[in-house]
Amino acid sequence: MRKHRLLYTGLIIIFLVSPFLFPLFFKHQPLEVGSPVHIPSTNDSFAKVNARRYSMPLHSHSFAGKLVVTWLPINHGYRVELTDTLDRTVDELLFTKPIFRLCKGDIDRDGNEDILLGIVKKTRFDPVDKKRLSIFFVDSSRLRPLFLCSRTIHELVDFAAANGKPGIIYTIEKISDGRYVFGTYSWCGFGLSFKGYLKNYSSLSECTRRLARETF
Is the Cβ–Cβ distance between 93 and 42 less than 8 Å? Predict the structure, then answer.
């Protein structure tokens, strides 16, 4: 009986302290906020709330609220929640793969803010975990896929919606010889159309500075 009491006591202690132990045993996968070289603090940027939870204001003709992203330490995934003005969750998506980028912009040029998610994942035709771009929109308080980009022309490194230019997305891509290029894609009604590369850069830091200037 004494052994049983000790066992129960031990289980209760583990249950009480487990929320504090998770950060020690599970390495946090940080979500990139804004540009790697410039973190904007305006309402139209992606604002960091704390080490494991992020919030971004979201507005459209039929919806006003926030997009909240929470890191899930158990499976190293993320929960993406759509919340209304009363902080009630109206829809959510669960991702078991890392999210490396989150931003917003009017991609399909309908006057509403769309959600751009950078997810490391496989696809049907490319069974290797790589950085991919996915675009979602809000429809009747629900998150719907607008466009799931399986790949860019070269290896995707980073991206962001162009500031003040609806329908335009800028990318940083790595080509086979190790150089980086700054790409432009435009919404064409059913997906993204490649428009061209602006310049070859010698380093990733040059590309990230250009991305910050063009998107924030």
Answer: no
